[in-house]
What we know:
By secondary structure, the protein is an alpha/beta fold. The protein has one domain (10-134): Transcription Regulator spoIIAA, CATH 3.30.750. It has four helices and six strands; from the N terminus they run E-E-E-H-E-H-E-H-E-H. It has helices spanning 33-50, 69-81, 102-110, 121-130; strands spanning 3-8, 11-18, 21-27, 54-60, 88-93, 114-118. Strands 1-2-3-4-5-6 form a six-stranded mixed beta sheet, sandwiched between helices. The protein starts with a strand and ends in a 12-residue tail after the last helix. The relative contact order is 0.15.
Amino acid sequence: xxxxxxxxxxxxxxxxxxxxxxxxxxxxxxxxxxxxxxxxxxxxxxxxxxxxxxxxxxxxxxxxxxxxxxxxxxxxxxxxxxxxxxxxxxxxxxxxxxxxxxxxxxxxxxxxxxxxxxxxxxxxxxxxxxxxxxxxxxxxxx
Length: 142
């Protein structure tokens, strides 16, 4: 497995191709709205370029102090604009509990995003490999 490094304003993303998905480790010294929206845009473009339909995102950024609903709205808008409606996303925040990001998952679902929050990488990978399929591929009951 080779790793490719992508860089952006205030962050780096190390990407590896795995069987059926991309693994992306996002690192930086701070998490701001500008950093978050820029890394999701960069990651979305890379998924599109590679034809990836699933991504595991490990976020190694300092916790965001008191992120309000407007932050989650803006970040999920950026994800939707970056093409994540067509990409299943498993997300692991390496510094915060799952509950700190659950609101983003709910807001994202309302915008057509398939994103699930996990407490560790192995759970996230299992969901990407064996979990429920992307909503567009589900078959309606007969």
